[in-house]
């Protein structure tokens, strides 16, 4: 039995296959949209959770890896998508969730987390030990990061029901996960020599840790292609820039690049990245951003129907009552902060949707109870979203929410596979 990712990477390296989008989200409508798009394009669905989001202590979602596995499978069954081939990935798995502790304690937690992930059926494992722990530099060097990654790989190999199904991703991107914190942060592609050094350091560390078998299943290196998003701006990828990185991969057809923070780029960028051997394209905030767009649109429509106050008022109260999820990510005067809380590209509002679940359900139920005036819908939503929603076997409001996410995700798939 082989993993689902390796054949796709081999095909991509031979210029015979597409990249795979990686849906990094714990939002049920986003996951459903990701599964459906994978089905419609005859590809596996790659759904990922991060170490802060899901871990053995619950993370900020309250889910352990086993809980998340059940969560995704339940969504698939609910939407009749249980036959879609599924790859579950763990993103940025390392000690960073516990970086306030000494390295030994943080790594002990990281080992427990890795074991929990692979036992729960996660098979794509991104080993990221680049962030320093208590008393260390914010970013540790390649040697330390690689040594810790190899230590975690050895734990994964020993804990997995079938280690041969595991594939590993190494390296990290700069800025940190979730996008740049400030709009004036410069973005430069990873220099080829640094990418080579990262690969070499990890190969050496895996050998020293007795994890050479795991090294043979390393399938990706995270590098910065030259794109990013910040709270109020998007650093656009320049498709005219030369490809200096592909030579780093050499003739290893089992290895590709993984790009993070690909959200909000123009559709042609994703095809260009594929030609540059980026086989895995991570997307997350742009999908929940699209979901929020559709929800706010539906709330405007409901306001025209019966005068119901806009749902953004509820979210504003929730974000001010518990500001820890956006403070430190958004900066500016009160007017700027108010706008960013709702419309920032970092989409920190996504942390608050579980707290507004009842309000979202009530809004959807009210809209589903009667015909939604088409002219009012068209005032707030594109016709492509409404046409896609009409083809989904879901209640009208939920269909619109998922369809709008799908419209964003479609840019990641080549048209000819549909």
From TrEMBL:
Named in its record, the pathway it takes part in is: Carbohydrate metabolism
A single Gene Ontology CC annotation of this entry is: plasma membrane
Query: Keyword Ribosomal protein: yes or no?
Result: no
> Per its UniProt entry, which superkingdom is the organism in?
Bacteria
Which UniProt keywords are given for this protein, alphabetically ordered?
Kinase, Transferase
Q: Name one GO biological process term.
A: carbohydrate metabolic process
- List where this protein forms a coiled coil: none
Single Gene Ontology MF annotation: kinase activity
PANTHER family of this UniProt entry?
D-TAGATOSE-1,6-BISPHOSPHATE ALDOLASE SUBUNIT KBAZ, N-ACETYLGALACTOSAMINE PERMEASE II COMPONENT-RELATED
**Protein name, entry field:** Tagatose-6-phosphate kinase
Species for this entry? Paracoccus aestuariivivens
